[in-house]
Design brief:
alpha/beta, TIM Barrel, 8-stranded parallel barrel, two-stranded parallel ribbon, 14 strands, 45% helix, 11% strand, binds D-xylulose, binds cobalt (II) ion
Length: 437
Amino acid sequence: MAAAFPKIAKIQFEGPRSRNPFAFKHYTPDELVEGKAMKDHLRFSVTYWHTMRGMGADMFGVGTMRRPWEDGTNSLKMALKRVAVMFEFCEKLGAPFYAFHDRDVAPEGATLRESNKNLDAVVKELKKFQKNTDVKLLWGTACLFVNPRFMHGAATSCNADVFAYAAAQVKKALEATHELGGEGYVFWGGREGYTTLLNTDLKREMDHLGAFLHMAVAHKKSIGFKGPFYIEPKPKEPTKHQYDSDAAACLNFLREYKLLDHFKLNLETNHATLAGHTMQHELEVAAAANALGSIDANTGDILLGWDTDQFPTDLYLTSQIMLSILNHGGFTTGGTNFDAKVRRESFEPEDLFHAHIAGMDTFARGLKIAAAIRKDGRLAEFVRQRYSSWDSGIGEQVEKGKAGFKELEAYALKMGEVTTNISGRQEFLENLINEFI
Ligand code: XUL
Ligand code: CO
């Protein structure tokens, strides 16, 4: 097949002074940061759904994207042809991973059996391309939200037949992910939530979701898939309330249904924003429960209240993300998956490169900035000092479980008034961070 991006060669690192738009200014895959190659810190991944299937349609207009390789059909023939385009893109970009939903890579057939057959054919092709390149699968997932059958949800549908269909689809998507050596598998609750409580038995729906995920864990064991399961929180959209609304809600759900040992979280910036949180908040909440798994790298727009899935180009954002990730030991099976789409005005194939280069360079800088902040040590030392009252005396006794209310009352009575508070120095710290940006 002729190249889909004939004018674009492999993207190389040319340094910050380069004026070549098809070059990295900051991302040097093999450069060591804190003793580990940048590519191993960042583990970039390209999403099939946006980059290959996103056509730029919105609520007010049809798609705008020019994709010369597309023949205008959602056929198996086109799906097979598209695999070569995806791998050409990932290879030229130097992205080590990709991620997909079952229905992004292969078309849904007239029956489930036919859909499975289509998926098998495309998985074969994906496997061939994976073998011939250095591109691997970061994670797979099932699309349980596009088809009208999922109008009331999938695992949380009021209709048990839909639950059964969804289970069959996840079983197959999991097997496809396993066949392709995927590093993990994601559950994003597409329509697992409600639009009105008037027609919803919330407890019953949550119980069904818990049961569904236990079935997935059992199947994972039976096929020998070793990668982690991730839940991806999002508070709303498409439903008014998604059950996996934020990291804390997911952790509570997993704990309640005794699933915490089997899941980590896949956190997405724009979802955090919709939940009224920063991405760093979500990362810290997940890390505190030892459940920081992977990230969907994108950003929203401060003036728009929906999931715009823009490419991340804000250094403050990527520095904060990488600071949390480095502080908590870095990715193992997870990675930086660009769940992001080019604007519908950026309709040329080359915009896909500009967007990913921008995201990768911004994350590379975020990584270096975070490493510099850690090397400098003043921020960590400030936080350490701020809690120093817990290192000895009464604080130490509390942390060690050696003091109760009675002992604390005696201590407080003897102390009289608290005279030891120190400033939080927020503005000083914000300025300190700016030294590194
Ligand atoms: C939707 C979203 C999904 C998941 C995978 O907002 O983020 O694409 O990442 O299902
Ligand atoms: Co996502």
